[in-house]
Amino acid sequence: MTKKQRALEIIKLLKTEYPDADCTLDYDDAWKLLVSVRLAAQCTDARVNVVVKDLFEKYPSVKALAGAQVDDIESIVKPCGLGKSKARDISACMKMLQADYGGKVPEDFDELLKLPGVGRKSANLIMGDVFGKPAIVTDTHCIRLVNRLGLVDGIKDPKKVEMALWKLIPPEEGSDFCHRIVYHGREICTARTKPYCDKCCLKDVCKKIGI
């Protein structure tokens, strides 16, 4: 089985197992997803979803958050960890959105990367979930699982994993594939415990099991 064939089979099996998988960060506007994904670094999505309720209630728009003091943002987002750097990035990002983009999140990957605190993972998430464009989000679950499954060989660098997956995953499947991989990584192919291979829908195509 080639990597391409393995990838297509994995996509099919994950669709059956997790038909409704989507982003687990709660948001109703693109700028809110930008804030939440920055807060999600080294923090659970569940905690972020709780913390941002207070943040967005106090600062309900890009303009309002752009005008907030960094210390005030930090006091709210501190439970997510790395509060100082996250608050600084969020403040700078909102200021740039307000000044350069009229308060709107740009619908262009390279423009997204210009925003403070926005890397390839965040930009891809915005492109896929908000704008419905081809996207591959290489978070820690994705990197771990595609190595275990044999879609990449010992590659841990997020950008290199992303570039490798673009060659294997049909563009229209990328965003949903990554969401399903996250669900699978949390529930079955776990990092902190032994993977539940006996319950895995991918066990017949998993390179790790097949070795």
Topology (elements, then pairings):
Blueprint: H1 3-17, H2 30-39, H3 45-58, H4 62-66, H5 70-77, H6 83-101, H7 109-113, H8 120-130, H9 140-149, H10 158-166, H11 174-187, H12 207-210
Helix pairs in contact: 2-3, 2-6, 5-6, 9-11
Question: How would you describe the overall organization of this protein?
Answer:
The structure is a single chain. The protein has helices at residues 3-17, 30-39, 45-58, 62-66, 70-77, 83-101, 109-113, 120-130, 140-149, 158-166, 174-187, 207-210. With 211 residues, it is mainly alpha-helical. The protein has 2 domains: 3-22 and 136-210, Endonuclease Iii, domain 2 (Orthogonal Bundle); 30-130, Endonuclease III, domain 1, CATH 1.10.340.30. Helix 5 (70-77) crosses helix 6 and helix 9 (140-149) packs across helix 11. The longest helix is centred in the middle third of the chain and has 19 residues, at 83-101.
List keywords for this structure.
211 residues; mainly alpha; Endonuclease Iii, domain 2; Endonuclease III, domain 1; 12 helices
Biggest sheet, open or closed, and with what strands and sense? none
Determine the CATH superfamily of the largest domain.
Hypothetical protein, domain 2
From the spread of the alpha carbons, the general shape counts as elongated
Mean pLDDT equals: 96
- Specify the helix fraction band: 55-70%
Percent range for β-strand residues: under 5%
For the record, the CATH architecture of the largest domain stands as Orthogonal Bundle
The CATH topology name of the largest domain reads: Endonuclease III, domain 1
User: What is the helix/strand order?
Assistant: HHHHHHHHHHHH
Unreliable segments (pLDDT under 50, ≥5 consecutive)? Answer: none
Question: What distance separates the N and C termini?
Answer: 13 Å
Number of domains: 2
Task: Give the tally of β-strands.
Answer: 0
The helix count comes to 12
Category from helices, strands and their pairing: mainly alpha
Radius of gyration: 18 Å
CATH class of the largest domain equals Mainly Alpha
